[in-house]
Amino acid sequence: MGTLINAVAVVVATLIGIIFKKRLPESLKETLMFVLGLVIFVLAFGWFLSDFLVIDNNLISTSGELLVLGSIVIGTLVGTKIDIDGRITRLSERVEHKYKLPPLAKGFVAGTLIFCVGALAILGPIYEVVHNDLTLLLLKSMLDFVTAMMLATVFGIGVAFSAISVLIYQGAITLLAVQADAFLTPEMWSSISMVGNIIIIGIGINFMKLKAVKVANMLPSLLIPIIYYLIIGWFL
After folding, report:
1. Helix, strand or coil for residue 185?
2. Which of 38, 111, 177, 184 is most buried per CB count within 10 Å?
């Protein structure tokens, strides 16, 4: 459902962008991005604390801190070594500059790269499956809504067709998350959720433009808790 809402938001925003054309000021986009980034930061921090803090007999303790720290450090090192963020950036630039695409195709490609190639496109469907909560995908829908409006003023109706890419890509991730849910334990999901929320906090920081965080390089961190528990299960 969240992915469907996301796709509809892209289509509607494209139509609005075409109607209003150049009447959408850049300052409005920057303000909306900052506000949405702030909301993402606060929500992700709250979600992280809900998994991280344990209340027992009116005493507050923490759980999984070493695994979360290790996952973020190791995963980011792997992502940086592979240079996921750089590869994504270079792919976007190559497609944009190398191929002489007509306006409609340019809108489709630009929208697909922006809406599908990012941490939220992966974490949103996973969060919906694990927590049965659409909040993250709704936030992504709002971010994509603002972006689609601005893109439509340049590329026109082609941006709307990128909604098809959103449906296919995020829909596939949702199906994979559903399959994974059958064998991943609650402890695994809790650790994955904490790591994911730290990455989402980084996304919020990016949108607020407080610092350029290469969140794509952090994505391998999501696999570390799974590997850890599989190893532990193998030897115990």
Report:
1. coil
2. 111
